[in-house]
Write a structure and sequence with these properties.
By secondary structure, the chain is of the alpha+beta class. It contains ten helices and four strands; from the N terminus they run βαβαββαααααααα. A four-stranded mixed sheet has the order 2-1-3-4, covered by helices on one side. A hairpin with a 5-residue loop joins strand 3 and strand 4. The N and C termini lie far apart (about 40 Å). This is Glutathione S-transferase.
Length: about 210
């Protein structure tokens, strides 16, 4: 295999990596599956990632990667011309790594536990409390990130993979109207990223008609 294959689902975090692949210009095939629905797609996914999560990136040669942040760092090395990560040696690169880890290690888990709280607590009041707590925690995290956002992009002048995260994740809870009101700099950065033709095409494919 001489190309990449990205396995994901529409509306999920695979959109972030898909946008990075589009910006990189690397040869890639996109495979959409209903990752929670039993069937051949999920069976294949579980064979590649026993956690059953998307995205999964299959590299040229067949090696398998999970975790979107790791994929972004790999794609930056494979296609440095795309400038997915700021150049080494400067403060923007340090800020990039800090925010990338915060998105993956702090914001993402609020969806892991909040999207289907009954999976972790069982049905009932405990699940409702977990959903509310993770929603509250996510809003607090976004407000803290808002304080560090530059303009016109997250880190200032350069569009980076952070902008791809923001462009996708502002479609998720608490939804775009909340960002417009409470995190306008993040909303503006999302709009700037969406103005890039290749990013816009990916967002349209994943979220057109989603009813934000």
């Amino acid at each position: 295999m001489t190309h990449y294959e990205l396995i994901g689902s529409r509306g999920c975090g695979s959109a972030i990596v898909e946008a990075a692949l589009r910006l990189s210009g690397l040869d890639a095939r996109i495979t959409d599956i209903p990752y929670l629905k039993p069937g051949p797609g999920r069976d294949r996914l579980l064979g590649l990632n026993p956690l059953g999560q998307v995205p999964v990136l299959i590299l040229p040669g067949g090696a398998v990667m999970t975790e979107s942040a790791a994929m972004i760092l790999h794609l930056n090395e494979a296609a440095p011309h795309a400038n997915l990560v700021p150049a080494a040696g400067g403060l923007p690169r340090a800020r990039f790594f800090e925010m990338l880890v915060r998105l993956g290690a702090a914001v993402y888990p609020t969806f892991t536990y909040g999207d289907d709280p009954a999976r972790w607590t069982g049905e009932g009041e405990a699940a409702q409390k977990l959903r509310a707590a993770t929603d509250d925690r996510r809003e607090l995290l976004w407000r803290s990130i808002e304080e560090q956002v530059g303009e016109p992009h997250v880190l200032g002048e350069q569009l980076t993979a952070l902008d791809l995260y923001v462009a996708v994740m502002t479609h998720w809870r608490p939804r775009r109207a909340w960002f417009d009101e409470h995190c306008p700099r993040l909303a503006a950065a999302a709009d700037q990223a969406a103005g890039h033709a290749r990013v816009r095409d990916v967002l349209h494919r994943h979220f057109s008609g989603a009813g934000d």
